[in-house]
Write a structure and sequence with these properties.
The chain is built from nine helices and 23 strands.
């Protein structure tokens, strides 16, 4: 039997498993191929939902569904933590230390991890909306925030959902205006390089909107530490910025699983950016945030990568030469407030065009968020 193992039950892993179940249906039903999805979390989480939790537009429960409801019946689902990858023997080991699993082809889709503790004082002095607990705490803090200095500081680069840091200050500006609180709140956005975003066209778009909406932009702002008692951010450049409410995009890290397996020194899997095959081992792929490719750590990237890897794995399972490649395609909606959004699309080496924000694009984003569960099932 040809065994395909997928580690990670996020967007990339779930879409891939369902695509393979469809692509290799006859081989699976004949007992010639097994597709196994392994994840430590019994719930599948759609992380972009967390952006809306601080504003009371969504709840944490809206972001998750039992993964068994999303996975094709032909996929073998294993709820277990993978603790080791032996690429020489093609084996996975598990947290219980009593079992191991052989694979013929392996896909790592373990995502990125938040590491606010990497910056002294950040965990104690800052909030974030990149996880369920952080989003709920920020919701409660924002509800009582009537005056003072709100700072959105991008600390970690690269990070998941690269549009979200730009979206948040625009959304909070509109949210405060709706409640008559905006004139008593100063908003500042900081970014570590010399513009507002890594993509130049997005940076230009955001800079114009920030100026129009009286949001202060600070660039070359690299956070060194946070003093939660004095409510002061200190930067590598030697500057200080006082705050009353700090919302930070914390540093992200890859996986110790990757480092220990020799697949990437910094916890991200080194891959060929077109085939998504690991450069340090045969029969291993990586997709989604854990893959070190020169594009955004966005859900759409994981989605498109999953399609390419499904084609390549299916070809190998059938003994044919894989030809599918990934061109870096990324699509992303960006909220421009509470009722307008824009949309960008680009591939490797391309600079996206930022459309004029509109209400229809805002509703299109909300519509996609609702239909995402069809994407996870491999139906979209």
């Amino acid at each position: 039997m040809h065994r395909i193992a997928i580690v990670g039950g996020g967007t990339g892993g779930t879409v891939l498993a369902n695509r393979l179940a469809s692509e290799l249906q006859s081989e699976i039903e004949a007992g010639d191929v097994e597709v196994r999805l392994i994840t430590a979390d019994p719930n599948h989480v759609y992380k972009p939902t967390f952006l809306y939790v601080p504003f009371g537009k969504k709840t944490v429960d809206d972001a998750k569904r039992p993964i068994e409801e999303l996975v094709d019946r032909r996929v073998t689902l294993t709820i277990e933590e993978v603790t080791g990858v032996d690429t020489d023997r093609n084996r996975l080991s598990f947290a219980d230390r009593t079992t191991s699993l052989h694979y013929d082809q392996l896909v790592l889709a373990t995502g990125a991890n938040l590491e606010p503790e990497a910056v002294p004082g950040l965990a104690e002095g800052g909030h974030h909306f990149y996880g369920p607990d952080g989003a709920e705490r920020l919701r409660d803090e924002l509800a009582d925030f009537t005056e003072g200095h709100l700072v959105l500081s991008v600390v970690g680069v690269p990070h998941m959902c690269p549009a979200a840091p730009v979206e948040f200050p625009l959304m909070v500006d509109a949210w405060l205006r709706e409640r008559g609180r905006r004139e008593d709140v100063e908003i500042t956005y900081t970014y570590p390089i010399n513009r507002a975003h890594g993509l130049e066209s997005v940076a230009d778009w955001a800079t114009d909107l920030f100026e129009e909406r009286d949001i202060t932009l600070e660039t070359f702002f690299n956070v060194d530490e946070v003093d939660p008692d004095a409510e002061v951010i200190e930067t590598v450049e030697g500057n200080e910025l006082e705050y009353d409410l700090l919302v930070a995009i914390p540093p992200h890290r890859g996986s110790d699983l990757v480092t220990d397996a020799g697949l990437g020194d910094d916890g991200w899997v080194d891959v060929d950016r077109h085939t998504l095959e690991a450069t340090a081992a045969e029969d291993v792929y990586a997709i989604g945030d854990i893959a070190d490719v020169p594009t955004s750590k966005a859900g759409s990237v994981a989605h498109y990568e999953a399609g390419v890897v499904a084609d390549r794995i299916a070809s190998r399972a059938r003994g044919t030469v894989p030809t599918a490649t990934y061109d870096g395609k990324t699509v992303c909606f960006l909220e421009a407030g509470m009722d307008e959004a824009t949309f960008i699309e680009f591939s490797y080496g391309e600079e996206p065009y930022v459309r004029e924000p509109s209400k229809p694009l805002h509703w299109a984003k909300l519509g996609y968020n609702e239909s995402y569960w069809l994407t996870a099932r491999g139906l979209l």
